[in-house]
Structure formats: C-alpha cells, structure tokens
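Re: beginner question about structure tokens

> Can someone show what the tokenized structure looks like for a real chain? I only ever see the sequence side.

Sure, here's an example I had lying around. Input first:
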Amino acid sequence: MRNKVLVVDDEQSIVTLLQYNFKQAGFEVVTALNGEVGRDLAITKSFDIIVLDLMLPKLDGMEVCKQLRQRNIMTPILMLTAKDDEFDKVLGLELGADDYMVKPFSPREVIARVKAILRRTQPQINEEEKNTIDIKIGELKIELEQYKAYFQDKQLELTLTEFELLLFLAKNKDRMLTRDQLLNAVWNFEFAGDSRIVDVFISHLREKIEIDSKKPRYIKTIRGLGYKLEEPSNE
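And the corresponding structure tokens:
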C-alpha cells in the first residue's frame, strides 16, 4: 500500500514540484493551497504524513497544527518555514509538529526527511518484541505490540514520535541518555546541533506522565548531559 501525503502550501510552484516528486517516489498525494482546506482534509481523510507550510492564508500552519492536535489527530507533521527563526521552529514543535525544514530546499531533501519520519513513526514490531512482556514503570505502562501507552490506567494521547521517545527511554530505564543519543535513536539522523527538539518533546512527555511536570518523578534531567527515565520513589 502506498503512503499517502497531504501537502499544504500556498505557493503553487512548490505544490506542483512536491506533488510531482512525491508521485515519482511512489506516494499518493493530496494538496491544499490554504490552511483551512488543509485542516479540513486532515480532519476528514486519513494520511500517513502532512507536509505543512508555516505561512498560509486563512489559517497559518501553527494554527492548523494546534487544531489537529487538539482533536487528537496525531498524523506526523513536517513543518516548512521560510524563516530561519529558532522561535518559529521550537513553537511549531511545541504545538505538535514532528519535524521542520527551512526553505529553500530540494524536493529530494523533503522526500528523504518524510521517509525518515515514516520509518520512525510507522510501527515496526519484530517477532522478538511481539513476545516481550509489556513495560511497566510505576504507573506507566507501555504495550509494545499495540503501540499504546497508559498512565494511571488512562491511555495517553501521544504522537508517534512522542511514543518512540518514551519507548526508547523506557527500554533504557535508569540509563542516562544524552540529547545526541536520543536524536540519533528516535529521529534517525543528525539535527546539526538542534538538540532543543529533544527538550521540546521531553516537555511534551512530562505534561502527560508527570503529576507535576515542574517536579518530574519519571523523566529526570541530568544537568548538562541529558535525561533518564526511572522508577518514581515513594516519597
């Protein structure tokens, strides 16, 4: 089955270019030229990934991303931005985007990044993992085969990238992991020093599995080094 991508950009030349190259790479492509149409398509139809421009008419990319996540639509989102602006990048990730690219870019770069996102976000459970007992740490439970996570017996609404990060931390329980290790394990490629992406997603997870995200009991910060997930104490 071909992967289905939604491309949302108001520049017709970019849409046409991406549409052609995605089709050449074997994708099924749906396009939208403004944020409202893109949002509505993402709500009413099923996609494997969304390529979403930041600056859009009617509804900007940030708002589209925010509204989709509020509806618990967790389709991976690659945000495109013409601004090499750290605030835009981090804000996009905080609102629920999985990755970002700065214009200008080549279609080959976009397709490579999309394939990387799909590799890490589409469940690939091997036979050994199928027979693995679910991971339980305190009130956190991760079901490997179902690709689901629960906290206090309530299913967590996680993007697939958030799930991958949580799973990797859990599999390495009590082990300190650097930001670079997390980038390489979860995102599958170098981010050229943009380690803040890890901090943003750690913050997302803490909001969902910590009773008080400012005093985390599960995901601990190792100052200047990285993070580790541990069994909470009974304090």
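Each token stands for a local structural state, so reading them left to right follows the chain. The mean pLDDT is 85.
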